[in-house]
Amino acid sequence: MSRLLVLGNAGIDLVCPVPHLPGAGETLVADGQSRAPGGKGLNQAVVAARAGAAVLFAAPVGRDAAAAEVSAALRAEPLASVSLLPQDAATDLSLLMVAPDGENCILTLGAAADALSPAAALLALEPLQQGDMLLLQGNLSAPATLAAVQAARGRGASVMLNTAPMRWDMRPLLPLCAVVVANDGEAAAITELHDGAAAAALHAMGAGCAVVTLGAGGCAMAGPGGLRRHPAQPARAVDTAGAGDTFCGVLAAWLLRGHAMDDAVAAAQRAAAVTVSRPGAFASLPTAAELKAILA
Ligand code: ATP
Description:
Layout: E1 4-7, E2 11-17, E3 34-38, H1 40-50, E4 55-61, H2 65-74, E5 81-86, E6 92-98, E7 104-109, H3 111-115, H4 118-124, E8 133-136, H5 142-154, E9 158-162, E10 179-183, H6 184-191, H7 195-204, E11 209-213, E12 219-223, E13 226-230, H8 243-256, H9 261-276, H10 288-295
Parallel strand pairs: 1-4, 1-8, 2-6, 4-5, 8-9, 9-10, 10-11
Antiparallel strand pairs: 2-3, 6-7, 11-12, 12-13
Helix pairs in contact: 1-8, 4-5, 6-7, 8-9
This protein binds adenosine-5'-triphosphate (ATP).
Adenosine-5'-triphosphate is lined by residues 164, 183, 213-216, 218-219, 232-233, 235, 237, 240-245, 247, 269, 272-273, 276.
């Protein structure tokens, strides 16, 4: 069975309800705090594993208590393997301030993700074999990401890239990727276009198949079969955090199972609709039982 190797970030989300989002110079008193595992790499790996894929997850972390917390949380997930790669930096942390209307403000520290060297990224890819898939996001450095993509291709694996967060020029990677998933803002940053036009441009720039996600508007997809729109699964949205990660995790899992792109996108949107219907990021990801029912 082909496997999915997710190489990305993992850390802790510290979520603090606040009476309003802070202004310049303001000190805010939070109404509490909750901690959860987080990071786009971690979320996408967990969703793909819960969706039934054989997932190998590799992520840089610090040598600290937060890394142990991440490790403990991942033991409860159906991942085939977890490689937390110790770096001389603190484990990544995101502070999410959430106002009563659901609006949020996020501060992210990504020193561990930034610290992963290209050589360490290559070591993490050693299990990859012909027919496997590598899934990456934008949290690692550009050199580490490029090294990983090239090595995966050299091993006969396909590559799926989620362009979030967009911190550096991703255009050189596009021709090396079988699938690229960007939200509309990220797609516009690369192509200066939106929606279907952006998807078509990403495909023309080399992505095997480009998907531009459009929130409640669903997504646009451009590939060898032309340009297609897929409406979102209707949902009562409470908090969209984690929607993109759910989409990517299910899309990768479904493609690995040999489903056609259109079917995989439809499954990804059904799963993402669950995530947006409840608060939190990690806490809102669909469970394995929910995914089994959704994807049946
Ligand atoms: P986030 O950063 O909030 O996780 P994103 O910006 O990466 O998300 P979006 O385009 O907002 O990505 O959403 C990804 C997918 O999630 C959409 O293509 C859609 O299928 C689903 N989705 C998002 N918002 C909604 C919504 N309000 N109702 C139904 N589905 C939604």
